[in-house]
Amino acid sequence: MKLFTEYPEKDERNYYDLVAEQVRIQMDKLYKDQERALRDTHTKTHASVEGNLEIFDFDEQKIKSELAKRTRLTQEQLNGISLKQGLFATPKQYPVQLRFANGRTNVENDYVADTRSMSVKVIGVEGESLEQSYEPNTQDIIVQNAKIFFIKTIKYYYEFFGSIVESEQAAQKWLRTHPRQLLALAKVTARTPKSLLTERYWSGSAYALGLKPDFDQSQPGLVPVDYPAVIKYAFSPVSCQPPHQSMGYQSRPGIPKLPFINRAKALGLDESKPDNYYRDELIEQLSKSDALYCWDFGIQFQTNPKMSIDDVTIRWSEKKSPFFTVGRLTVKHQIIDFEKQYDSAENLRFSPWNGLVVHRPVGALNRLRNVVYPIVAKYRYQKRGLNY
Q1: First to last CA, the chain
Q2: CA torsion angle for 342, 360, 201, 271 (degrees, to 10)?
Q3: What are the CA-CA distances from residue 382 to residues 37, 107, 379, 386 (Å)?
Q4: How does DSSP classify residue 56?
Q5: Counting CB atoms within 10 angstroms of each CB, which of 46, 57, 151, 156 has the fewest?
Q6: CA 269 to CA 346: how far, in whole Å?
Q7: Which residues of 353-387 are buried (b: 16+ CB within 10 A; e: fewer)?
């Protein structure tokens, strides 16, 4: 295994068609008889929020010097890494559109063990777009409040997603027979933050930082492909006033830490009534005239081949490879309790494949997303009668 290299799985491309068919069946299962279709995962939208992403004039040489200490890269390889390109090219302020959501395939109560995601659409980004992009001059960054994903291979994704299509009982059986995946799922869904406005979010999957001159986009998934550098993203909550101190994790009041227990009973809630805690909390907090929330935007380099690009169940250690802050996301006071605004969030499309060539998504999960996301989007918009 080499640094900055993604590797194909055995028979990987055969699984693309199999998974694609599963996704179509699942979307029909969920929405064929419905007036409109939601997403297949991260289905429950909490809110659509506007913000600002500032890219700093960061010290590129300082970061590369730190990278030199933590890797065995030659000086020639280090010289081939350019941090200031694409979204990071120049210090700049970008408007962003955020979608906060839960992770499950169905709209569930917010006390249910789940991931919480923040999809970030950066607007006005200049540069060559990926062939798969469906919007000009935007860069999508999808993050969730977990460092890892719980499915390690495309083959496993095919098996697990197939069990979901079959039944909930089949999915539970698959997880019981794959204890490492079950344990990873428990970790991914363990957090129940007090507020999504003070939560930390990670990309989980990896992205290129530039491409080599001889890069051939037909090769990933067929042969090993290497890049000048590979990174992950994170948004870490900080105080908005200098020195921008890190904010510690706070759990939703009354929620037990164990992921698989009856949380509704523990909270004394009526399970028959909807629990929209996170939407209500977002609306309430942002309605305050002095509302102000900030996250440091950081990048983390792969510094050792054992920090797998393709197996997203493997956590990249922040002790061995810290995040470098390259910008700051800010959200201010705004009124978000509008039905049309909620519909706008449902209509928005997010994908790691909507963005610049130099930030190409890499790794097995991202290669699979390139198959799945367009199918779900097409289904949603056809059902809604929308031309995106």
Answers
A1: 41
A2: 50
A3: 9, 21, 5, 6
A4: P
A5: 57
A6: 28
A7: bbbbbbbbbbbbbbbbbbbbbbbbbebbeebbeee
The residues with which 54 forms a beta bridge, in sequence order, are 93, 328
Residues 302 and 228: beta-carbon distance below 8 Å: no
**Token code pair at residue 206:** 């990896």
Q: Say what angle helices 154-166 and 364-384 make with each other, to 10 degrees.
A: 40
Cis peptide before 243 (omega within 30 of 0): yes
Nearest to 206 by CA among 321, 74, 344: 321
Show the low-confidence residues of the chain (pLDDT under 70).
258-260
Residue type for position 7: Y
Which of helix, strand or coil describes residue 375? helix
Q: 319 is written with which tokens?
A: 């002790």
The two structure tokens encoding residue 63: 């970061």
Give the residue carrying structure tokens 């037990």: 256
CA 67 – CA 82 distance, rounded (Å): 12
The amino acid sitting at 190 is A
| 121 bridge partner residues | 97, 140
Distance of alpha carbon 337 from alpha carbon 340, whole angstroms:
9
Whether 98 and 120 have beta carbons less than 8 Å apart is answered as yes
Separation between Cα atoms, residue 286 and residue 332, nearest integer Å: 7
* pTM, to two decimals: 0.96
Q: Which residues contact 119 (CB under 8 A, 6 or more apart)?
A: 42, 98, 99, 101, 140, 141, 142, 143, 348, 350
What does the pLDDT look like over 127-177, one tens digit per residue? 999 999 999 999 999 999 999 999 999 999 999 999 999 999 999 999 999
> What pLDDT score was predicted for residue 254?
83
Q: What is the mean pLDDT of the chain?
A: 95
Residues 6+ apart with CB under 8 A from 242: none
Half-sphere exposure of residue 99, counting CA atoms within 13 Å on the CB side?
Answer: 24
Radius of gyration of the chain (CA): 20
Neighbours of 250 (CB within 10 A): 12
Nearest alpha carbon to residue 124 among 206, 52, 230, 211: 52
Relative to beta strand 92-102, strand 5-6 is: unpaired
Find out whether 103 and 144 touch, Cβ atoms under 8 Å: yes
